[in-house]
């Protein structure tokens, strides 16, 4: 199965001046890629380069002598519209970077010989920490000297939740929502209690303002309406004269018998003159029609002006009342907002805030009741979540232990220990009571999850990094990743010397599991075992020059015809031996048959 729909894929990595590698480019494909080569050729530098590219510790001692700096560049391809990658792309965008037009994102990390380190994403300089954040979403590196992703307690809990499936993920989402609501109530109660005096003073100020506004009882838009009315009343005589004069000009003086030279009379002359000859010329007929329209408009306007003159109020008492009301409104706008509409909005907000500032014992009791109710709901969900996690942890441990049997660790056992965080009532740690026990609670519930290894019967349960050697830890991580494979996690996985200390049938089993993991992930493996390499979909060999350095052609992809010779070299160091090549071809055939059987 390809990775085209599974998420982002690391397409290429170029390493310059790192360790024994002078300049080498590794093109990666979907599925299972294996890197092999003679001892000292630089296989592990490929993994070191990946670690550096994704935010690992910069070690100036690994800069190749004479180069001045080590540079690692990588290209990621993102699948369009994949919701799982939106967080990554959003984080990249926050840093001011963006993928190229073809959907690929370029990453770069350089380390100078004097130890200075720089990081680039999408062509922009970014903090090295951003590369580490991207790695959490995209890459899991398992190696004897690497910081292993699954050794993080939070990641172990998250991985177990993904493995457990929809029931647990839904419970965790509900727990997170209830936790936020409960913490908000707790914070509010503490704030109301600790700042009662300040809140009471603020509440008094708000009540005073609301009382003052209520006494005036302003109406929406009233200040603008009164302003307009005030202007009319103050200039009533000027307005009356202007309207009367305009009316006379339009309609004439009704007290005069003779036809006056007003607009209406003049338009009458125009209408009569044009109408008399309109039948002889269409142009004048149209002019007569428009003269009729003008006469009608003049009549309407004259009527409106007459009505306006009759309705104009010059009452001094009304003007005094308007001035008084405007003064009251101005008192409010000076204190609370620029307009009366703003004053009313302030009053609405103040009333809502006043309810939140209530520090009366009745209000505090009601808030305590809401807090306790929220705590009870949270505790119930956390208890259900804890029980579901414990059931999933039991299944998970059994599956990983079964995987270890085929990885030359038949007596080892992995345990996913789910424990609850007990606290005393005197501490300030956020806590809830579950089944009579006071437990520390967080957004993910009350559980700590720790993956532990029992190396042999009778041995104690120890945390992974304490209970296994480097080689064993790689195999334990492989078993864990195989079990977790269908439950999300980073799409690209890198294993360095995962087969350390094993051989024979156990090596074949490792190869089978890596091939199974590669059905849903991009897998890169550095190995010295041909049994593992035979299961790869793509084989890259690190070629060492006669003087012990790696040139620009140091990383070379092998064709199907070239693979048997490399496997023969790995089997017995006899890449020209017909018997060795025949054995290698048989090994490849067995691997193909095993992969086809589980496809």
- The average pLDDT value, as a whole number, equals 83
The residue ranges in which pLDDT falls below 50 over 5 or more consecutive positions are: 1-7
- Largest sheet: number of strands, sense, barrel closure: 6 strands, antiparallel
How far is the N terminus from the C terminus? 9 Å
Gyration radius (Cα, Å) is: 42 Å
Our count of helices gives 19
Shape: elongated
Strand proportion, as a percent range, falls in: 15-25%
Q: Kindly name the structural category.
A: alpha+beta
Number of strands: 17
**Largest sheet strand order:** 2-1-4-5-6-7
Family: Belongs to the RecN family.
Protein name: DNA repair protein RecN
Organism: Cryptosporangium minutisporangium
Pfam family, one: SMC_N
Describe this structure in words.
Helix content is 53%, strand content 16%. The protein is an alpha+beta fold and 599 residues long. It has a 6-stranded antiparallel sheet with strand order 2-1-4-5-6-7, with helices on one face. The longest helix is centred in the middle third of the chain and has 45 residues, at 361-405.
